[in-house]
Amino acid sequence: MTRRVSDSFLLPLRKAAGERGGYDLYPAFEAAGPVYEGLKEMAEALSGERAIVLDGNEGVFWDELIPRLVKEFPGRRVRAIPVLSAMKTPAEIDSLIEPFMGEEDSIFGRKTTLRLIDFFDRTALAALHPDPSADITILYGPGAFLAGWTDSCVYVDLPKNELQARMAAGAAFNLGADRKFDGRISYKRCYFVDWPVLDSYKADLVPSISWMVDEQRIDRYTVFSGDTFRNTMDAMCRDSFRVRPWFASGVWGGTWLRDNVEGTDASVENLAWSYELMALENGVLIQSGGLLAEFSFAFLMAWGTKEILGKDSGSFGREFPIRFDFLDTVGGGNLSIQCHPRPEYIRSRFGEAFTQDETYYIVEAGEDAAVYLGFQEGIDREAFVKALRRSQEKAEKLEITDYVQKHPAAKGDLFLIPNGTIHASGAGNLVLEISSAPYIFTFKMYDWVRLDRDGRPRPINIEHGLNNVRFERKGDIVKETLICHPETVSQTPLCTMEHLPTHPDHFYDVLRYRISPGGRKEVECNGKCHVLMVVEGQSAVVAAGEGKEKTYNRLETVIIPSAAGGYTVENRSCGEIVVVDAFVKNSYML
Q1: Looking at the structure, do residues 69 and 193 belong to the same domain, yes or no?
Q2: Per-residue pLDDT at 456
Q3: Number of independent structural domains in the chain
Q4: 3-state SS of 225-280?
Q5: Which pTM value belongs to this model?
Q6: Residue 177 φ then ψ, to 5°
Q7: d(C-alpha 381, C-alpha 377), whole Å
């Protein structure tokens, strides 16, 4: 049976010593305790328990994990009970989640208000008890802790990129489902139902976790204690760190990331995205004694909300507000002509607290690279609408520049894309997308009459787009207000600090530091979380809070929590480096 289908490799068990100098695919924070390979140490610690609860994420291969754990209790009579036996039937769950799944042929749903307990028959859950004739009874599966057997549990985590890889292979199903769905439906169910439910639930478990299991390598588990887990997160909240990036191909994808990021899969046709910091889907790597283990970023945000977000924790809670990702169209194609929802629309229709406001920072640009942004001065709304609908109905190509402006793109440009703005990256760009955190609310209005990688027409969302697009963003207003005009804030012989003003609708701001060899920049956090990246040059040495100096290479995304207090970025390389720094504006209140 095929276990996974993915454009990214499975996480290695160990990270090779000295494996630095370029972009690091496996950035790991030093654990505040040991990480073990296999289940032996965990089983020894649990051997005196009569009842053991193994909770965990959807998609875990319990049928393989449980027998291996049972073998670690030789000479003991062990009974294993799946909490799935107390879950509502798949048909009942389909009915339960139906209000959040949107229209059947739409990729959009509504963020659920359900809790994990709602997926269970409470009477059946209460009827689950340890077997008195067994030496050890194990209750396992998502929601096992709800049965109330013990005050602590083992949590078996599975990164969301690996969950999606298993789902793509038909090896894992959605929460409470007993069959594979179409990929678009499966992802919609994950995004709007499964992940909000499971992330909220597991975040509340953090104080009760006695052991953590990283299950993604089916035959090479890594485990660490709950104390190591919590102490490591405490340290991360006061130091710089990275989340684990992962990559995916797409119909418009390019070749720059594939060809320039060492360790990516050179056999894939393209890489369209790099999920640098998409908090809902990223995990965090830790290491000890060379062993790597991963846990969901959602755990860290739950444990250290105030330490990470500082002044903004009241506005965003457990949601990390800023997103960094790459869009690669170098050697690829244009993105769809699109816009994102206005704030009131995303709240009322999709249940999100804030909307998808973007910027495009151009990291690399070919000779003819361009960005589509804003309407032409003489835009005729009715003619545009008719042209879009005719193109969709008859698969006719448009001369899109009759309606939408096309701007040349050069390295270092910042294009501002607040909600409702018509836009697309053209071919030939490596874009660093600095954005607010939501990321699937893209209303494609024109997609060059092309098919998706599965041979089906790409979803077009003309009506959603027309309900949100701002036709007043046209003509000269676009160049004046939607193309950033950098301002020099301070300058020394070795460091220039620039402000890259964002649009008033953006809740985040961007600074840029140009640092010569031997130069450095000291920055106070001022109660804010900062997200950094070296966009030009070789590397930067960053010291945050009381943490050790760390070297971060070009294109690596770095988080500086508010509790670090401040950070220093220093250039010890041979040439100039350019660093961007994004953070929530002081004026923002959700």
Answers
A1: yes
A2: 83
A3: 3
A4: EHHHHHHHHHHHCCCCECCECEEECCCCCECHHHHHCCCCCCCCCCECEEEEECCC
A5: 0.96
A6: -95, 155
A7: 11
